[in-house]
From TrEMBL:
It is a multi-pass membrane protein. It comes from Ostreobium quekettii. Residues 355-598 form the ABC transporter domain. This is Uncharacterized protein. One of its GO terms (molecular function) is ATP binding.
Amino acid sequence: KLEEGLAEPLLGKKENEDYTTKQLAMELVRLTAPDSLIVLFGTVAGLGAAVMNAYIPKFVGKGIDFAAIEANHSQFIMAMAHLIIVVVANAVLVTCRGGLFSVVGVKLALRVRERLFASLLRQEISFFDETGTGTLSSRLQADTTALSSSVGIYINVLARSLMQLGVVTFFMARASWRLTVVTLVVVPAGKFVTQVYERHYSALQKHVLTCLAKVNGTAEEVLSGIATVRAHAAERSTLAAYRSGLMDVFKLQAKQCAMYSGYAGFCVLVPNFALVWVLFLGGHLVLVGDITAGILVSFILYEQSFAACCQTLGNCVTMFSDGIGSTAKVAELMNREPRIVATNGVMPRHFEGRVELKGVQFTYPTRPDALVLDDLSFKVNPGEVVALVGLSGGGKSTVMKLLQRFYIPQAGEVLFDGRDVGDYDERWLKRRVAMVGQEPTLFDRTIRQNVILGMEPEDGVEQIPTQEEIEEACRMANAHDFITAMPCGYDTLCGEKGIMLSGGQKQRIAIARALIRKPSVLILDEATSALDAQSEALVQEALDRCLQNRTVFVIAHRLSTIQCADRILVVNDGRLIETGTHTELLERQGIYASLVRRQMQGPLDLPAPN
Ligand code: ADP
């Protein structure tokens, strides 16, 4: 199912171009298409209900004529019997219609959420740099809810109203074409006002959603950094910023309220005006003997039903405008083509783990004017341990990100075994090139699930890790003992962002997560600075074990790691300025030697002096 989501085609819309209402309506039709059979049954039930509903005034009129004018008792009883049948049939069919269309709405919500999430998962990393997580989670929650509930209700109500409108008009015309013409004259006037209203309301709704996403983003940012807010006693200014965002939303919503109430009043006025008009003319027709009193009563009931349908359709427009605003936002994300495509690339039989950067030039898409890597080239042989060293901000982590194809360099190449990183099947490569970052992210799943992240059956792996393999990886990562000491062992839940575990424990699970892949290339951001001495020793021991039998890139902070590396690359301002072993570089008396001299006791990548 995820694959289906991933393969979603575009709607013929170019990036940065707004969807037209027609395209969005087509998108909704496309999303509802898998349930077309349910929609069909719902429509049949709806049509049946509309016909039954239209028969009610007819038998009421007949009943009145038989009772009050013709005084025919048996005919009157027959009319009442018919009336009871159509009333019951109407209720049954309405139940079927409502149930079926509600199911369509609920299934639509499911489909939209799944497809949207699938689309988010395939976007390139720079997309997440550009779009805040607040906006994305608002799309996933608020917009999908608005879309599916408004569209779900909309399908039901719209279908009902349209069908009823059609059938009632037909019955009205049969009762009296003169009165029908009079009734229908009022409609075009209402339609014009509706169109104007729809256009303005929809634009406003889009604006409201954007503002809400911004406010949500502010709140999320603050909540995730609550310790910083508390530490600086910045609650008041934070609340003020949040309130100001809410006020922006409020101003727009106040406008929406004014628009909606005016429109609702208009929607009530038009049909009531039509009623007076029909009674005036219809009464005249009865007086001249053109129609019976029963037919006039039937007609008034039809007219009431017609007016109710028109009013409901008007409300539908509002709901649809809400839905369309959300659909536009959701569709934009759902159909966004990632700039870095994970094509079905090659999966060679042998992978040695030779790595090469050739004349790489790179700037982050969010900061296109700041050159981060400038003509960077180096080669690393299989099995070599390479330490990247340099001042903070020099571009070391960026090199690691390019090796993982989070970003694509503007010039130059990133090669594995002589082949461009983009030529490989992404999922295949991610099992051979593993990464342990500075701040490992654990998810609110069990420890086992966190260790085998990306290697579960759904991930399409060739071989799902066995319990023995999981334990072996955890032993190597110095994690097995603390995991088994927990009450639920490998089934212990890690909590949101791994809150139940200490920094060192998280780090060791992250190491196990990399080792379980038996990677040919391992990328380590050696982060032990935030750990206490005992945790650091355990993590360090695990990291040292990782260095064997594979190509390793390590952003080295500790002198001991740097000394054991086969080669040291000194990166500064995005350029490779020195390369060699620890001893060679010391002898060269260059930047590296001065770094070592200056920071013999501490980490090597202290912030660059300004
Ligand atoms: P190092 O790992 O050597 O400390 P980085 O590779 O993290 O250096 O950063 C190199 C430069 O790129 C810095 O100026 C940093 O501000 C910038 N940078 C890092 N990540 C991003 C990002 N996601 N978006 C924009 N600029 C970034």
